[in-house]
Design a protein that fits this description.
The chain is α+β, with helices and mostly antiparallel strands. It is built from 14 helices and 31 strands.
Length: 599
């Protein structure tokens, strides 16, 4: 075990984690020059197209140190976007050290600090790496001072590197050997292994990735998953390189994979402990917390008969992305579907994209919202959770409603402070503190309602600061708020899929927006359609789609006007009758388009 090193690479988005990982793979000859490509560890098309890491990726490297010893490195490359921070927390639970990457041209950004705190909570050894030092815009001394202030290290502890040109790779390797402690564990103790990731393979079933804390695992052992209390045979165990390499046995300190022939996703849980059936460990490993979804949206299949296929697809996707949560839901307008919880809007977008690409499932998603708490005026009533607008109590019996607030951390240049404050106040935020990290960088801390940052906050922040602001947030608490349920009515009938919970001050503007969008999208009928947004019985916005009219007087050329009037009256009665029996059909395309309010 003394020659093992388990570490992850953490950083803000776009600071060069995947590029640096590519150089480490090349340096240790884990991947041949012929097979080398950019973002070698990112195996999803969507990761390559967007240039971001969505999944953490584990790989084993072998390094011959100058002391003549060969060391085995288990490296985990992690995502940098705030929406995928759960991937980072799971990777950190399986490591003893972390490479903290900071872009020399951009300096410390919000997610850098957030990931650093995660690593410190788990007592990881931090190796600060200043990346992209070969760029003309690199501010080596200034950013080094920022790192020293943040971590409290010496200037000599910072490794200068470039993921693009390979500068400093040897220094990083030596730092990993010298500074990250070897894993601790007892070989003679009962097997104890933490599952930190899993995926579904259509030929092999579920593949679970684990880190062995104590004991030894052998091929053919009968293993038990502690939380689900299910027993299986270890059909195949091994280590992860560019391909999975089967092994006869794995010992404490190592990271590997196990295939047991499990075909259903419910039988395995990320965060569970693997032990032996005959020689069980006393208790499971306390790894990482359960995920807390931030944003909820309904997902419905376009055709109702695809409901079971969508359930299977979501279960398989959940294996690969443990931060996705879902439960069944029904809607009058959209039929049977699922209420899904996400860590943010990018996460929601990626899940929709992956359902389409990997499982051929096209879905309609409802207006995203967050979880609220409400209490009614009934004697002895307790607070209850409001997940969808249909759960919201009638205004007449509502006592109060509480919405989730977050503490938001924005790091930017001083010239953008005014624009950011205007944006945050428009989103019902209050400034908590303002700290100058240097003459060129300021950290702003705001309290904001989570519902206000769900839609377009991050995009608008980037545009008003020309990309110079970095944003991170953490849940704070629930606070009382003046929220109302906004119903959308078509000819007096409520469309539950378009209902939303909004702040009273913003309800009218939001309702007007949806009414205008629906007027553009709904096809005209042979009768007039009234589109209304209402709060309870009060209509706050309205648009009207005029009826398609046939010219019934076309055959009357000349003659008495009373003939024309008679025909028009007859038509009027027919329209009235048609309106009473005619239903307004909302096409599926309209549901998808109306939700893109920010466009």
């Amino acid at each position: 075990m003394k020659n093992f090193r388990n570490f992850c690479v953490i950083a803000h988005i776009d600071h060069g984690k995947s590029t640096l990982s590519d150089r480490l793979l090349e340096f240790t000859q884990t991947i041949s020059e012929r097979k080398m490509k950019d973002q070698a560890l990112d195996d999803m098309d969507i990761e390559r197209e967007r240039g971001i890491t969505i999944k953490s990726h584990a790989i084993q490297l072998y390094y011959n140190h100058s002391d003549g010893e060969q060391y085995t490195f288990n490296l985990i490359d992690t995502p940098g976007h705030v929406d995928f921070s759960y991937e980072v927390s799971r990777s950190i639970a399986a490591c003893e050290g972390a490479l903290l990457l900071v872009d020399a041209s951009q300096g410390i950004q919000a997610q850098t600090i957030s990931n650093l705190y995660l690593a410190i909570e788990h007592d990881l050894e931090i190796i600060p790496v200043l990346n992209k030092v070969d760029m003309e815009s690199a501010m080596i001394d200034e950013v080094s001072d920022q790192i020293i202030d943040l971590i409290g290290c010496d200037k000599e502890d910072i490794v200068l590197a470039s993921g693009k040109t390979g500068i400093g790779i040897q220094d990083i390797m030596n730092a990993v050997v010298d500074r990250i402690p070897a894993p601790e564990g007892k070989l003679d103790a009962p097997l104890q292994a933490l599952i930190f990731d899993s995926e579904f393979n259509q030929y092999r079933g579920v593949i679970a990735y684990f880190r062995i804390m104590n004991g030894v695992m052998r091929k053919g052992d009968q293993v038990r998953f502690v939380n689900t209390e299910a027993d299986y045979i270890a059909d195949e165990i091994g280590v992860m390189q560019m391909d999975n390499i089967p092994q006869k046995k794995l010992e404490a300190g190592n990271v590997g994979y196990i295939i047991t022939g499990i075909k259903t996703s419910k039988e395995i849980k990320v965060g569970d402990t693997i032990t032996l059936t005959e020689n069980q460990c006393v208790e499971g490993i306390h790894g990482f917390e359960d995920v807390k979804p931030m944003v909820f949206a309904g997902m419905f299949p376009i055709e109702n008969e695809h409901y079971e296929d969508l359930r299977d697809s979501l279960e398989k996707l959940q294996l690969n992305d443990a931060s996705l949560v879902f439960e069944p839901e029904t809607s009058e307008a959209l039929g049977f579907g699922f209420r899904c919880g996400f860590l943010g809007m990018l996460h929601l977008e990626i899940i929709q994209e992956r359902l389409s690409r990997e499982f051929d499932q096209e879905v309609i998603s409802t207006i995203p919202n967050v979880t609220y708490f409400a209490k009614t005026k009934k004697a002895g009533a307790e607070k209850f959770i409001v997940r969808t607008p249909s759960d919201f109590p009638d205004p007449g019996i509502l006592d109060f409603v509480e919405e989730p607030f977050i503490i938001a951390q924005i790091i930017t240049k001083p010239e953008y402070i005014g624009s950011i404050m205007t944006l945050c106040m428009e989103k019902r935020g209050t400034i908590e503190k303002q700290t100058y990290l240097s003459t060129e960088r300021v950290e702003l801390t705001f309290y904001l309602p989570l519902a206000e940052i769900v839609f377009d906050f991050y995009d608008r922040l980037k545009s008003i600061t020309r990309g110079y602001a970095s944003f991170d947030y953490a849940p704070l608490e629930y606070r009382k708020s003046n929220l109302v349920k906004l119903d959308m009515l078509l000819n007096g009938d409520s469309v539950d899929a378009l209902s939303a919970l909004v702040h009273k001050d913003k309800a009218q503007a939001f309702g007007r927006k949806i009414c205008k969008r629906l007027k553009e999208l709904l096809p005209r009928q042979q009768f007039k359609i009234a589109i209304q947004a209402s709060i309870g019985s009060q209509v706050v916005a309205r648009e009207t789609i005029s009826a398609l009219r046939k010219d019934v007087t076309a055959k009357c050329y000349g003659g008495d006007i009373s003939r024309k009037r008679k025909l028009l009256e007859k038509q009027k009665k027919g329209k009235k009758k048609m309106r009473q029996i005619g239903n307004v059909e909302v096409p599926q395309k309209a549901f998808i388009q109306v939700l893109k309010l920010d466009e």
